[in-house]
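Re-run with default settings, no changes from the original entry. Doing this only to confirm the output is reproducible before filing.
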Amino acid sequence: MIFLVYIQNLPFLLLDHEQMIIKALELIPTQLSYQPVGLNLLRDKFTLPELQKLYETILDRKIDRHNFQKKILSMDILRRLDQHRKIGPHCSPNLYLIRLNTKKHSWKVKDLDSKTMYVV
């Protein structure tokens, strides 16, 4: 059986499983600097706010929306679709697909705000 829990509310875990989770939480932000970790966690089609939320969750901090979108779009790794996700009466963000071309994109760290380095 699989179930989701908040990391802050982990139940008692057997053996060294708690240390494994703690180590994984330490490694994920580091891995963002050299591989596109977050891509496996997204739907096939996603919005920029969903992508931003994913990285804010992984990095455990807020990212400026304007700077994030500007940098992500300038990396030319997303393909904008002619589809929208209906969220509310006046909010229908565009859907995107990942455009993977490992020869063109080296997955180097990009500065998404003035304080911290992030990567997609």
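The first helix runs from residue 17 to 31. Residues 102-120 have pLDDT under 50 and may be disordered.
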